[in-house]
Each structure stands twice: as structure tokens, then as C-alpha cells.
Amino acid sequence: MKQILQILILLIIFSCSKVGVSKTEVEAVDKVLQFYGGQVNHSIGFKIANGKKANYFELQVSKSDLLNNEQRYLTEQAGNVAYIFYTNLKDEKSNYNEIRVKIDLDNGTSQEYNFSTTELKEIEELYPEIEKTNNFIRDADYKSLIRDSDYKSLATQNGEISVGITENKLKDIFDQRKSKFGNIKEIQNQGFSFHKSVYRGDFINVKEVILFDKNAEDMILSYDRKTKKLIAIH
Known about the structure:
The chain is of the alpha+beta class. 39% of the residues lie in helices and 32% in strands. It has 2 domains: 2-121, 2-Layer Sandwich (GMP Synthetase, Chain A, domain 3); 126-233, Nuclear Transport Factor 2, Chain: A, CATH 3.10.450. This is Lipoprotein. It comes from Chryseobacterium zhengzhouense.
């Protein structure tokens, strides 16, 4: 038993020791810093479970005004931190099995998140669908948006399924905002989270911000994990 404990202690020390990072990894960390500001520290390690070794890269973000103001969507923002880093690894993505994110808030609390590179790859593969949805919204092409989505379960309000939503209903929703806040200048992706429900099954929430001329509004796009179809906007 004592020998096993000694081995575990050695593994922990080794996994937490400082390991040199590549130029690509440094640049990927810088991308996170550019998006979130504040301070970004990093460490590299591994864990062994069921006889299998898994390498991880951990990002610790603190003093970020964006994260302090986005505590409602901290899970999605943590996903965005991991996604920004992962996608900027380029040819070095296979070096890690997990991207870990620790967020330190100004109120003294901290939250930790783990994202497998399999999950991050899933988001990367979903991204063309997200861009397609955003383009439909920017172009006010609601007919194509409905045609491209799973319209039978497309929702427009939190937790409520609206069967047979029409092009005009979507147009009214966005026209009201445009008349109040001006035109859409940009739609910015700010993370994701995974969910499961009885009526929707496994789905992904993608958190975005619509930047109008006079204001910014949050928007959540929900996609079915199996079909990759849009199933909700709220």
C-alpha cells in the first residue's frame, strides 16, 4: 500500500511540474488573452485512469471583465476559452485529451471545467452550421433558416416547443429588435454547453451575442447533437 501511495505521489508531482510549451501553444494562449483580457496562466499535466494516460492543458483565467459580467453563462464562456485554445493548436491538437479551464472571479469564487478534445472537435464540426444560421439571421433570410432547421420542434421561447413556427413569426421577433436597436453589425460566438432533455434528447446550446448599432443582446442557438440541425432560438 505504501509503495502504491509513493507511486501516486510521484505521478502527481510529475504531472504538475512545469513543462515547456510550444510556440503554437503560446500563440493559442495569447488568443484567449486577446478575447478575454485579464490574466491567463497555464499548466500542462496528465492523469492515469483505468490504466490509460490522458494529457491535459489547463488554462486559468482571472481578472477578466467579460467573465465577471457573464456569470450567468460561465459554463458556456469556459467552453469558449477551451475552444479558442483548441482551434488555435492547429496541427498540435492531438497532443492533448483534455482542455481544462479554471475561472477565478473577482468575488473570490472559482469554477473549474473539463472539456475532452472529442467534445471540442464536435463543436468545431458544428461551426459551419452555426455560421449558416448566423448568415440567415444577418441576411434576414428566415425562410431559409426554417427550411434548414428541424422546424417541427423549433422553439422561440425558453423551454417551450413551438410547432410550425412561421417565417413571419421569426421576422417579427428580429424586426422588433432592429427597430429598437438598429441593424445587426456582428454576431459573436461566446461558447457552448451540452444538455439532455426528454423532449429534445441530446443537444448543444451555443451562446452568442448579437451586436446591434445601439445595443448588444444575448442569443442561444440549440442544435441536435445527432442531426446537427437547429432546434431552438432563444
